[in-house]
Design goal:
Length: about 290
């Protein structure tokens, strides 16, 4: 079996400013500045595909419903953060997945991720489809549901898909990304201990097995004031198509997690488990019947 090894990286970081008296732009700049050395480290370590955590350039502000955080949104791809990441991608010949708070127009916002190829080309974006409104995750106040489907991006090194945080609880999107040809799906997240931690190393490995591709799961670390909804427990990891975790970050440390993913494993596993051959889309009408709760 011919192998094609791709070195991938995940960045998990704690927000450096937890003070609501500080302007939004200052908080965002501090978080962006904190990421830059980790992006440089990824470049030096030969990372070919890199992904950051959900809404990477700031805190996870959705435990509150403060309209000041609307100012954290910016256009994609015409905003300053996407342009900066294009420069960094080109500098390091590195594909970068950039999760951002996207401003589509005045009053219309999405939880999104831009995908930038290794030559700095903007390839497109994914908009989070499933928006929670529960238990301190009041995201419907901030985001519209995504309207761009489940795109897969042909990068220099692999075919990349994105599925954001709460999306991971819905198997349909994982399968759609597989059907569209994803080799690696990144799931940038913001999730706290006591809520979903017991699912963290169940759902993504199960998705990797069911869809026979690699998954990179990213979670931030630390606690964030003034909301203090709990500890973001990190534990960012890569899992292969057999459901085996190849590399995993700590629960509380700022960290670049790196793994070498052999895409040849996808072919190897699919020769054993013929899930794409044996699936029955003709029998799944109930899944799209709006009359079923």
């Amino acid at each position: 079996m011919m192998s094609k090894v791709v070195r991938c990286g995940l960045i998990q970081l704690a927000n450096p400013i937890n003070d609501e008296s500080v302007p939004v732009a200052t908080i965002q700049q501090a978080m962006l500045d904190k990421h830059l050395p980790y992006i440089e480290e990824a470049g030096k370590r030969g990372v070919q595909i890199l992904c950051m955590q959900e809404i990477f350039n700031g805190p996870y502000f959705c435990p509150g419903q403060d309209k000041r955080w609307y100012d954290a949104a910016e256009p994609i791809p015409d905003g300053p953060t996407t342009r900066l990441m294009q420069d960094l991608a080109k500098k390091h010949q590195m594909v970068i997945v950039v999760p951002l708070y996207e401003k589509e127009m005045r009053g219309v916002f999405y939880n999104s991720a831009a995908v930038i190829d290794a030559d700095g080309t903007y390839l497109g974006k994914y908009r989070k489809q499933h928006i929670p409104q529960t238990s301190g995750f009041w995201e419907k106040y901030f985001f519209k549901p995504g309207n761009g489907g489940y795109p897969v991006f042909d990068t220099k090194y692999a075919r990349v898909g994105v599925y954001i945080c709460y999306d991971r609880h819905f198997p349909e999107g994982w399968r759609a990304l597989g059907l569209h040809g994803a080799d690696i799906v990144f799931n940038p997240s913001a999730t706290v201990a006591g809520l979903s931690q017991y699912l963290w190393k169940l759902e993504q490995p199960a998705a990797a097995v069911a869809n026979t591709y690699f998954v990179g799961a990213i979670n931030r670390v630390g606690t964030e004031a003034p909301w203090n909804i709990g500890k973001f427990y990190g534990s960012s990891y890569f899992v292969n198509p057999r459901g085996q975790i190849q590399a995993c970050g700590s629960e509380d440390g700022d960290e670049l997690v790196v793994a070498d993913l052999d895409l040849g494993q996808i072919d190897e596993v699919r020769k054993t488990w013929q899930f794409y051959r044996d699936r029955r889309p003709d029998a799944y009408q109930d899944l799209t019947d709006p009359g079923l709760a």
